[in-house]
Design a protein that fits this description.
mainly alpha
Length: 51
């Protein structure tokens, strides 16, 4: 949370982007929302080097 900036941050895990959007939808009308998909860097690099 960033109280002076009036920003809240949530870290959630899901296999579906749509599920995150649906779960956060009730809060979206209260302000501006940005959903930023991220990955586990170490796991991603292991996948890349195994390819």
């Amino acid at each position: 949370m960033d109280p002076p900036g009036h920003d809240f941050f949530f870290v959630v895990e899901s296999d579906s982007y749509e599920a995150i959007v649906e779960g956060l939808f009730p809060a979206v009308p209260m302000g501006t929302a940005r959903i930023q998909p991220v990955e586990d860097f170490k796991a991603r690099m292991q996948k890349v080097t195994q390819s």
